[in-house]
Recover the amino acids of this structure.
């Protein structure tokens, strides 16, 4: 889990986001506490709290005073929309730019995707 190139608090936030996206943490379910995260990852509780508070500010988690943090309603949809936009920016736009550069039409690109998807579908 530890990636030396990325701050620990961001890694904590991303891991919780991954669990929301994949359904491990359902909406309205309680998120792990900062102390649990700190103990599991052997990090400072303040670092774990920083990652969790980022998710609160983003609207992915909310706090129930004296109880803990919970997954906000609509959090999964919010994260999926964010990730789809990042996917388009990081992969689709560069793909289409390069396709245009080498003379492939959108239909050619679709055909290539279908061909490769058929070969790699689990």
């Amino acid at each position: 889990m530890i990636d030396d190139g990325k701050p620990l608090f961001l890694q904590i936030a991303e891991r919780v986001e991954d669990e929301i996206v994949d359904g491990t943490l359902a909406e309205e379910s309680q998120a792990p506490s900062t102390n649990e995260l700190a103990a599991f990852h052997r990090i400072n509780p303040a670092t774990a709290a920083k990652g969790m508070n980022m998710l609160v500010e983003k609207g992915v988690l909310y706090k129930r005073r004296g109880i803990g943090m919970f997954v906000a309603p609509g959090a999964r949809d919010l994260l999926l929309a964010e990730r789809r936009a990042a996917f388009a920016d990081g992969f689709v736009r560069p793909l289409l730019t390069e396709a245009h550069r080498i003379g492939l039409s959108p239909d050619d690109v679709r055909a290539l995707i279908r061909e490769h998807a058929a070969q790699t579908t689990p």
Q: What stands out?
A: The chain has a mean pLDDT of 93. Residues 17 and 79 are 7 Å apart (CA to CA).
